[in-house]
Give the backbone structure.
Amino acid sequence: MKNSRLITIIVLLSSYVFLTLQTAQACTRAVYLGPKDTILTARSMDWGGPIGTNLWVFPKGIKHSGAAGPNSIEWTSKYGSVIASVFDAATADGMNEKGLVTNLLYLAETQYPDPGHNDKRKPLSISLWAQYVLDNYATVAEAVADLSKETFYVVPTMTPDGHPGQVHLSISDPTGDSAIFEYMDGKLVIHHGRQYQVMTNSPFYDQQLALNSYWEEIGGLIMLPGTSRAADRFARASFYINSIPQTDNITTALAGIFSVIRDVSAPLGLSTPGKPNIAATLWRSVSDHKNLTYYFESTSTPNVFWINFKDLDFNAGKPIKKLTITEGAIYAGNVAKQFVDTPSFVFLPAKKA
């Protein structure tokens, strides 16, 4: 039995090493499950070049189209949200006014649906996948129940800097519930439960869990893998997120989760010849589900700053607002009042590679 398990791990590790030579970018996400509903979700954004991230406030009542052709899914947002864009063309990260959080991370192995002519589902551009969830759901359970019906399918696109838009989606809520959404062989696969606290990149999530079980048997106090590869970051984040103090003191909890997400970050300016999957961390975010506060840290500026949702107006009809962070601006403290009325960016339309 042990030999069989060892062979499985070796095969997965071999596959993983092969895949990491082909993937493009990297990120990490982790959920802190503290007492008294002290739930925090952190993520790092690693990318091989500038991605033009800015922060946006979207009120409820916005009408959206799926940007995937004339038959695209359409909806009107039920909830307002604060989001981090990439290239000002897609929602990569964010939290809505109910405390539901979405995080998009790169997954090179993704294979999206290739529907036939008789497929009744409507298409949705990958650039709007995270935004659709923020707009429509208050809890993970609600999102899983609805999205599992697959009334729409996701269509990929190319990023403005030339990478295939291949991602998987994680969501979390104020109860500590989590779900991971991936497309394997064109089929939507969902992992749902509080135990799915960590997500990185390649390989697919069930294989990541199998790889991580190897390190769990060794024990994090004895040895942890130290590279910037996805499986190594998964192992370290999984160990540390449950090893730091579990407390309802929000200051201590925030310090702890920031330390975890920094541990799995890559140095700014990092370039590894022959390994384009290992990219520098450009920014980090932490979402406080209970207190509805979104924290943001650019690795090129000295301060963490935050947006307290109680200082925002998400009511329908209110203007969309933007906080520009791509032009070297430095912020500190609560910046909710520094957002400026700005027309929305245009979400990147679907386009198969």
Notes: The first helix runs from residue 2 to 20. Confidence is low (pLDDT under 50) at residues 1-24. The two ends are 43 Å apart (CA to CA). The longest strand covers residues 26-33.
